[in-house]
Amino acid sequence: MSNKGFTLVELAMVLLIIGLLLGGLLMPLATQVEQRDRRLVGEQLEDIKRALLGYAVINGNFPCPSIVTDPDDDDYGLPVDPSEDECADDGLLPWKVLGVREKDPWGSYWRYRVDTNFVDTFNLGTVPGDGLGVFRVIDGDEKRLTAANDEFRPVVVFYSQGPDMESNGLNTHGSDPDHAKFQGGEPVQGQFDDLTDWLTRPILLEVMLSSRVLPSTGI
Questions:
Q1: Under 8 Å between Cβ of 169 and 142
Q2: Is-above-0.85 flag for pTM?
């Protein structure tokens, strides 16, 4: 009686079947992990929004972006001082003064942009359309997610660069770095995967009014 083993063809077929089964299991797992990370980003964006509003109530302004990425630098995680230097056109979230996480779940720094009208004592009578922060947010179909009216435009925009870890959501218009659009909403495969949130002047005004710390500059 002779013993017969598997032929090379049979082994190849077995390995192919195992590979297909593993691939079928790993793909949904990867999708689940990305969905989990996106949910986590959504929660962290809400934390950032609350922290920015809290900062505004305490200080009467929003911080400038941070521009330092060296953890050994004393200014790491801190905003640029507007009395010493201009705010960066598009920088990093100053996470230390806000008390939030420095990076998103994919290991990228949170990006942050602020209308420079709102980094000193708030002048709520000044609207974003004065040329110092004409921001708008659009979706993958170029449809506006924010109002076109200057008075209701975002004054602060913050976002995660997404799984690809690139700021593919930011575009500037012409030579003016203060006229910028940001992509938000549902990600579009091959186009952008940034996760974006923002604060508008009406939201800021409502929080300041409810906190009874409205600045003397008026509305």
A1: no
A2: no
